[in-house]
Design brief:
The complex is a heterodimer.
Chain A: H1 7-24, E1 30-39, E2 42-52, E3 57-61, H2 68-75, E4 83-88, H3 93-103, E5 104-107, H4 119-127, H5 136-142, H6 158-170, E6 176-180, H7 188-203, E7 207-212, H8 215-221, E8 224-229, E9 232-237, H9 239-244, E10 250-258, H10 272-276, H11 282-285, H12 291-295, E11 300-306, E12 309-314, H13 317-330, E13 333-342, H14 345-353
Chain B: H1 2-5, H2 8-21, H3 24-44, E1 53-57, H4 60-67, E2 72-76, H5 79-88, E3 93-98, E4 101-106, H6 111-127, H7 148-178, H8 181-187, H9 192-222, H10 230-252, H11 258-275, H12 290-295, H13 297-309, H14 319-339
Parallel strand pairs in B: 1-2, 1-3
Antiparallel strand pairs in B: 3-4
Classes of the chains: A alpha/beta, B alpha/beta.
């Protein structure tokens, strides 16, 4: 990420960071044990254990309905769990609710602030709820809303409204910040702006817990990620660790069709002679890919098919790809699609669940 | 100012006040509408001079005799034309000269026609030479306080206090709930009681303006009397506003959508618009339903307002309606605090 902040403010941020981390006294900022919550027959959260360390940006990643929001709202003291314990900053909601409200900052999904209030008025109102906190100017500056200070909420763009929501979470100068889907529904530019803001908050040493169903977001922002599905945590680790579980650093995706009788594409012209020998077998093959042959290629870690799109996880992409081409040629198949990308958390989710994050 | 800046109750109240003032429709309904209504009713029901009654007669002598009375306007017509004029309602009575006297033709089920019969008879008898046996004089009274406008202003005041308190609270709360703002507020350290108290406080500020404007108008334009102590009138206005704020809170305590709360509001307010004696005396309703009518908060509020403004009664003489009001404040408030949905 790029930063526009000056050297001075970086030093200031670092100093804040040091003092914050020192103030934590070593224990985790958030500890969840055996959390359960059902709504009717739906088990929204079905046995979750998590720990978030001070100064960490922790992401709950999962498709809609995975239980992210229920989990975070239990942590925020807005929903009572059916079973399990939640400990924030060494306190709990049963005994220290008032104290905790002062110490945490919350941004909820889809809060609509009154359209006829100005940015400044909304923040002044929220600031008045906290015993200690930021000066209004600082909160406005952190959310980069200086130009919109006197603008009414009704006239703000989606991204500006979201930054206002984050500013209301920040005015109390919280030790622990909860962001529930901070960029859902924003255009790419507004999303980058919010990411930028979260990066700065991380730099300042705040502990952040965010939910998202965008894997790029989790990869970009989070130190550690818990991937959730159907109320369970199905994977936990740093984005790097999780991606490593896919087996290769890169993903090759391709689709095949029967080889056109008119002749092979120019890319494979050199192998023409070899292929023509197999032309007789082609009718019987029906474009079926021999997965075992592909997996035998050095560097190919795994293979799966999803609606005729084949996915290989691959290390050593540069040597593996020519061999994949060759193998497909040998099987008498021609490629109708071919692409590669670096492995992402999306691929982790696909590997674990067989579904795509955004299917739901 | 600096200490107020950090007082959450002050900020909540100021915010609520600003939001109301920035809603042009609210300003119309709270300030302009009651004045327009009072103006319209004042004009429609103004006290006119006693009506002059139209009558007809068949001879010039009779017309002359009838026209001598200022309460009648007489015109000459033959019997056939008179029958038509009677049927069309153009005249109330036709005096017909017959051989040995006068025949009055009129509809005795029409009160005005009966009055016309009495005046016409008196005029004709006087013209024929009758003398009054006793000396009498008239003393005319057109006193303020007994006019319709005097009756209706306290009614409109009560109705306005009900409407502005209930809409003001009910809509704002359900709107905040529907927009998830309520949930966001309780996720902050804001004390919940302050959120609701801020509504009451900003309501009281608006109330002062609203009542002063409306009653000032009624006083200046119609000369409506204030016979009771003004501080007691103010107290009753505050109590009435609190009662309907509590009722508005109750109505809004569970509803999630504006449609739901609108329906509930109308369900609560409609019976009171009809039964509580805003436009005519509630005592006109049958005796069987009188206990229900009297138990309604708006009836009690209007009774006390009329008692103060028109009769100059002290509050100590109106304990029953005041007790009814207090009950309507305490009960809905307690219930809504228990069942209020914060998210």
């Amino acid at each position: 990420m790029r930063y526009s902040s000056s050297v001075n403010s970086s030093i200031h941020d670092t100093m804040q960071h040091v003092s914050r981390v020192a103030a934590m006294g070593g224990g985790p900022s958030l500890r969840i044990r055996g959390l359960h919550k059902a709504f009717g027959d739906v088990r929204a959260v079905d046995g979750i254990d998590l720990e978030v360390r001070p100064g960490e940006c922790f992401g709950l990643l999962g498709p809609n309905g995975a239980g992210k929001t229920t989990t975070i709202e239990i942590c925020e003291g807005l929903t009572t769990p059916d079973a399990g314990t939640v400990e924030l900053l060494g306190r709990n909601w049963q005994q220290d609710a008032n104290e905790l409200r002062q110490l945490i900052g919350i941004q909820l999904q889809e809060t609509q602030f009154p359209e006829k209030l100005t940015v400044e008025e909304v923040l002044r109102l929220f600031r008045s709820f906290y015993r200690h906190g930021m000066a209004l100017d600082e909160a406005i500056a952190q959310a980069q809303l200086e130009e919109k200070r006197r603008a009414r909420v009704g006239g703000l763009s989606g991204g500006q409204k979201q930054r206002l929501a984050m500013a209301t979470a920040l005015v109390g100068d919280p030790e622990l910040l909860f962001l529930d889907e901070p960029t859902t529904g924003l255009d790419p530019q507004a999303r980058r702006h919010v990411w930028d803001l979260v990066e700065r908050l991380k730099q300042a040493g705040r502990t952040i817990i965010l939910t998202t169903h965008y894997m790029e977001e989790a990869e970009q922002l989070c130190d550690r990620v818990a991937i959730m599905d159907h109320g369970h945590v199905i994977a936990l680790g740093t984005p790097k660790e999780l991606i490593a579980t896919v087996g290769g650093e890169d993903i090759v995706e391709f689709a095949v069709g029967l080889k056109a009788t008119a002749g092979p594409s120019t890319a494979f012209a050199a192998k023409d002679a070899a292929n023509s020998a197999q032309d007789d077998n082609l009718e019987g093959a029906q474009g079926v890919v021999d997965a075992e042959a592909l997996k035998a290629i050095p560097g190919v870690q795994s293979h799966r098919v999803d609606e005729a799109l084949h996915q290989l996880s691959v290390s050593e992409l540069h040597t593996a790809v020519p061999r994949i081409f060759a193998a497909l040629e040998e099987q008498g198949l021609h490629l109708s699609e071919f692409r590669t990308h670096s492995a992402t958390l999306e691929d982790v989710f696909v590997r674990l669940t067989g579904r795509n994050l955004r299917d739901e | 100012m600096n200490r107020l800046e950090f007082s959450s109750l002050y900020q909540l109240t100021v915010t609520r006040f600003k939001l109301t003032l920035r809603e042009p429709e609210a300003i119309f309904w709270i300030f302009v509408f009651p004045i327009l209504l009072a103006l319209g009713l004042g004009i429609a029901f103004r006290n006119r001079p006693a009506d002059v009654l139209p009558v007809g007669a068949t001879t010039p002598q009779l017309v002359q005799a009838l026209a001598a009375d200022k309460g009648l306007r007489a015109s000459e017509m033959d019997e056939a034309a008179g029958a038509r004029a009677l049927a069309a309602g153009n005249i109330l009575l036709l005096a017909i000269e017959s051989g040995n006297g006068v025949v009055y033709r009129y509809d005795d089920t029409n009160p005005n026609a009966r009055i016309a019969r009495m005046i016409a008879d008196r005029a004709i008898q006087v013209a024929a030479g009758r003398r009054d046996a006793a000396e009498v004089r008239n003393q005319l009274v057109h006193e303020t306080g007994s006019r319709y406008i005097d009756f209706v202003v306290p009614g409109l005041l009560g109705m306005n206090l009900m409407g502005s308190a209930m809409w003001g609270l009910g809509f704002a709360i359900v709107d905040a709930r529907a927009k998830k703002l309520l949930k966001r507020m309780v996720a902050s350290p804001m004390p919940r009681w302050q959120y609701l108290t801020a509504f009451l406080l900003s309501r009281l500020v608006l109330l002062a303006i609203e009542v002063a404007v409306f009653l000032g108008f009624a006083r200046v334009v119609f000369g409506v009397p204030f016979r009771g102590p003004l501080w007691q009138l103010a107290l009753v206005c505050v109590l009435t506003s609190l009662v309907f704020s509590a009722l508005g809170l109750l109505v809004a305590s569970r509803a999630r959508t504006m449609e739901a709360v609108s329906g509930l509001m109308n369900l609560v307010m409609l019976p009171m618009w009809i039964l509580s004696g805003v436009f005519f005396s509630a005592s006109r309703f049958p005796a069987v339903i009188q206990p229900v009518v009297k138990a309604l908060p708006l009836t009690a509020a209007i009774d006390v307002l009329r008692g103060n403004m028109l009769q100059g009664m002290p509050l100590s003489q109106m304990m029953t309606p005041l007790a009814i009001l207090l009950a309507w404040f305490a009960l809905p408030f307690a219930v809504s605090l228990r069942i209020f949905r914060w998210r």
